[in-house]
Amino acid sequence: MILPIRAFGDPILRKVGKDIDKNYPDLQELIDNMFETMYSANGIGLAAPQIGLDIRLFVIDVTPLAEDEDYEDIKDELKDFKKVFINAKILEESGEEWKFNEGCLSIPDVREDVKRKGTIVIEYHDENFVKHTETFSDIRARVIQHEYDHIEGVLFTDHLSALKKKLVKGKLSKISQGDVSINYKMRFPK
User: What residues bind Fe cation, as annotated (predicted)?
Assistant: First the structure.
């Protein structure tokens, strides 16, 4: 089932997610719905707060990037890189900070350069509640960091300079009022 994505200004996007356990109601259905919602919006990541749940769950699928010539040198790593992250905790961020033009399904039509460290070590449970501790680099780390921010109540716009924040303030206001053209289901703040 395709769920509406919460728009900028919804208070749920600022909540820190709670840990869940393997008995969380209808967990596999929720995960399936999140992937379906993400795909219908042409996204590569989606976090539970974006669909109105303050829990520590996000999904990513960067497989489409394997076809992008910008990622030719890592296309094998990106191919079939589809993961579920439950109760994730970033243990370490390292390496050079690098800029990348980020966007967000909750903040349509806003894209800005964000600096993030190049490598992360993250601990998480998969959809079967198997615990993993893994290291990721490149665009995979970037997407994970972006979605991880969501379960921490942080949006990519929080990483912008004061000047950039001023420049996008009008767009953000319009989004929170529902004044945006999108081709996917979205729920705007009341």
Answer: 104, 146, 150
Is 186 inside a domain boundary?
no
How far, in Å, are 10, 46, 124 from residue 49 at the CA level?
A: 10, 9, 17
Going residue by residue through the chain, which has 190 residues, state the pLDDT in tens, using 9 for 90 and above.
999 999 999 999 999 999 999 999 999 999 999 999 999 999 999 999 999 999 999 999 999 988 888 888 888 888 889 999 999 999 999 999 999 999 999 999 999 999 999 999 999 999 999 999 999 999 999 999 999 999 999 999 999 999 999 999 999 999 999 999 999 999 999 7
Q: Which parts are annotated binding residues for Fe cation? A: 104, 146, 150
Annotated binding-site ranges = 104, 146, 150
Question: Could you give the CA distance from residue 101 to residue 5 in angstroms, rounded to a whole number?
Answer: 21
Whose CA is closest to 19, among 58, 56, 47?
A: 56
Q: Rg for the chain (alpha carbons), in Å?
A: 16
- Domain span at residue 170 reads 5-180
Please report, for the domain that includes residue 17, its CATH number.
3.90.45.10
C-beta of residue 18 within 8 angstroms of C-beta of residue 55: yes
| pTM passes above 0.85 | yes
